[in-house]
Amino acid sequence: MPVPTPSRPPSRRSPSCTSGGRSADLAEEGARFDVVVSNHVLHHLTGDQLGGLLADCQRLAEPGGRVLLGDIERSTFAYLGFGLGTWPLFRDSYIRTDGLTSIRRSFTAPELRAVVPPGWDVVREHPSRLLLRWNGRSAPAAPLRANRAGACDGCRATSAASRQACLARNGATGARPEGCRSGRE
Questions:
Q1: What is the 3-state secondary structure (H, E, C) of the chain?
Q2: Average pLDDT for the chain
Q3: Which sequence spans correspond to the domains of the chain?
Q4: N or C: lower Cβ tally within 10 Å for the chain?
Q5: Angstrom distance (rounded) from CA 54 to CA 60
Q6: pLDDT tens digit sequence for 73-118
Q7: pLDDT tens per residue across span 58-71
Q8: How large a percentage of the chain has pLDDT more than 90?
């Protein structure tokens, strides 16, 4: 039985939306969208994976399109607020453990600004939310910028004491401290 030919250009997955699939697979297929949206993903990625996602999202956006990537912002307020808010009902739940780990792994606005390529805007939203934006009129895809000198590539420790503690846990043994996204296994 013959497969019907779509009436819209083959590069378009759907006139409204699609879900699922890896960004690299969609970009390789030539899929294009007016708006590319992702939420609560950035804090799960290593530096290389983040760079790949940003490049894929730029390839997926139609000319003049937009990319909106929302995530948690790491802060004491977010950690304590979530910890206290989940204590009564989710004390022994995976929800509480995973949420607190996600907050520890998240970026702050200055950290995210320091690593994204030109053309990407980081917007702080409250409470404890970040929005990473790109529009199709911005600079073409660029590689992720190197992390600040001396900062742990994964947990982003920047103070001398934090760096030293991270290196003590991570450096000599190659072990990956909890919450560190350096990619070392």
A1: CCCCCCCCCCCECCCCCCCCCCHHHHHHHCCEEEEEEEECCHHHCCHHHHHHHHHHHHHHEEEEEEEEEEEEECCHHHHHHHHHHHHHHHCCCHHHHHHHHHHHHCECHHHHHHHCCCCCEEEEECCCEEEEEEECCCCCCCCCCCCCCCCCCCCCCCCHHHHHHHHHHHCCCCCCCCCCCCCCC
A2: 76
A3: 30-146, 147-185
A4: N
A5: 10
A6: 999 999 999 999 999 999 899 999 999 999 999 999 999 999 999 9
A7: 999 999 999 999 99
A8: 54
The CATH architecture to which 30-146 belongs is 3-Layer(aba) Sandwich (3.40)
- The predicted model gives 38-50 an average pLDDT of 93
Question: Residue 51 carries which side chain, given as an amino acid letter?
Answer: G
Confidence (pTM): 0.68
CA distances from 93 to 41, 83, 87 (A): 21, 12, 9
